[in-house]
Amino acid sequence: MIIARYLVKEVFLTFLAVALVLLLIALSAQLVGLFDDVARGSLQVDMVLQIFGVRILSLLVFILPLALYLAIILALGRLYRDSEMAAINACGIGTGYILRAVLGLALVVAVLQGVLSLQLSPWAEHQVQRLTAVAQARGDIQGISPGRFQEMSEGSGVLYVEEVNREQNRMHNVFVQQQREGGQSIIRARSGHQMTEEENGDRFMVLESGYRYEGEPGQDDYTVVEFEKHGIRIQEKEPEITSRKHKAIPTIELWKEDKRGYTAELQWRISSALMCLILAFVAVPLSVTSHRQNRYGKLAIAIVLYMVLTNLLTVSRNWLSDEKISPWVGLWWVHGAVLLLAVILLLRQSGIRHWWHKGATSR
Predict the structure, then answer these.
(1) Sheet of 157-165: strands edge to edge?
(2) Where do the coiled-coil regions begin and end (predicted)?
């Protein structure tokens, strides 16, 4: 029992460290993508943290199985290299005992993974879609990207701002082109800001010190108006999610609907929890190493195996969604193949009688 706790502790601490590193890498990539959306003007700065926060739940679904898999290989591999595993084996403790100890931790992670993939991740994806729709519907100054031509709300015109001071709510060197009945309206202004009426909440872009040109291109009958202030009402759109992605649909809804796309998504979510257990089976024999072996040799093999597994699952999900394979086959054949590989590796490592005997005598 003491040895089991020691093994679980070593794997668990490594699991936390690996998960934290993978999460930081994934979050950095997500943050770069979000700020790229801000630069393009499709997302407001004040919404970055909201989307960033809920996306953590979605990222954990991909991180936890991989982190557990690598943690088992790294933690047990260190015990083999430091000869601690040799001392444990000398006490009559074999692979079966080690496997049961590791599977206990893997079962806990699999339950957490199930909650994330079946409940929390779909909710997080729905929130991301909702926040994105809200960002697209807003015409806030936070969404104006300086030095770029941007389409105004509902395609009512084109806006170009040379410089934006978000803290002071000021714009400098503003160009606006709008299509109106009877011709076009082009406005050039030295500066501008946005204001909201307290009575009804309507928002306006107030342009200052500029000119408005109205008329048909190529015609002589156009007018030029100089102004000190000119207001343009910002048209607000209702946030609308045009199409729900499968990963944002609640699990109970996937279960009720008899659609191949829904079935594929449901099996994918269940598979992510099963991966924690199956990868633990594979990781135990892959962790076996010696002093002379390269420290990261087995780790490279493990990563390649993980990439093959995830690619096969992705291909199977696409096949199931396209009705190329039966739901009874679905993604399950991939898990069966990997489980068979794990059994072969375990038997090859110590032999079935030797493995089972040591596992039984150490209870």
Answers:
(1) 149-151, 157-165, 170-180, 183-196, 203-215, 223-233
(2) none
Tens-digit pLDDT profile for residues 48-70: 888 888 889 989 999 999 999 99
**Per-domain boundaries in the chain:** 2-137+242-361, 145-233
Report which secondary-structure segment, H or E, holds 34. Answer: helix 2-40
Residue 306's SS3 state is helix
How far apart are alpha carbons 38 and 27 in whole angstroms?
16
Strand partners, 178: 157, 185
Neighbours of 259 (CB within 10 A): 12
pLDDT beneath 70, residues of the chain: 39-42, 44, 135-143, 145, 152-156, 182, 201, 218, 220, 235-244, 291-296, 350-363
User: Are 286 and 73 spatial neighbours (Cβ–Cβ below 8 Å)?
Assistant: yes
Q: 290's torsion region: left (phi>0), alpha (psi -120 to 50) or beta?
A: beta
- Which H or E element spans position 161? strand 157-165
